# Entry
Amino acid sequence: MFNAMDYTSAFRIFENLDSRVPGTNGEYAALKYISKAYNSWDNLNIKDAKINLEKSYNIICRDCKIQKNYTLSSSEEKIKNQLNILAILEKLYFNKDKDKNIDELKPLEKIVEKILSKVEPYTGDIIKDVHYTVCLCRDFKLIQQAYTLLRENIINYACKKAGFDIWPIKDISNDKNPDQKCSLRQVIDSVLGSFCHEESINKLTDSEKQIRKKLKPFISKELSDLYRNIGDFRNDLNHGGYRQCPKEYKMFINKLDEFIEKSAILLNIKC
# Structure
């Protein structure tokens, strides 16, 4: 639930566990408050986010001192830093003396407003949000990152359409090398090319063919071609041009807009 940023469902689960499972040393309670805090933060309810994150932080600090190998002990510093960020946001936007404080924080206010204007378009839809991030990378001249995210978002789309986990935890057995394992995303990367070159299907392993079968209703030849072309440009960047027939540097910026537009159409992204 946390990986999928579904904090509302996570809160319900941990609230239920906290009330029904005894002897967990506050772990479920801490996770319950973290879930509620992150959900509030996502909805820009800064005060509620800070209150619940403080509750979680206090439980973690208390239980870390009581028991060894406490599961959430590694999160203590991270949550402390997040509380500091929330404290700044609360002071900037929700303090009773806002007008007085804003004069002292005028430069920070402008920075925060610029940041907010960039993050406001995020919706929680992973496909649309990553696509928007690609546009930001282009605007900030982060060309290599834009190409990488464009390609990864096609895998996101494939996963979501076929009902796969976008963030797989378990590795998949590698039919080609039983001693090694690979992630679902690596398998999809291998499979996507077969939709524009069907002769390569025979080269797929049994596991890859099963995944291809699930992806087939959603992956067109055009999308497969786009994935391959983006990868070709991305590889030129990653290898610093040390490939056969490397592209001229102007092409990377010129083609990026075309790839972004095609991705929006083929992934059905309404910008």
Q: What stands out?
A: Strands lie at 172-173, 181-182.
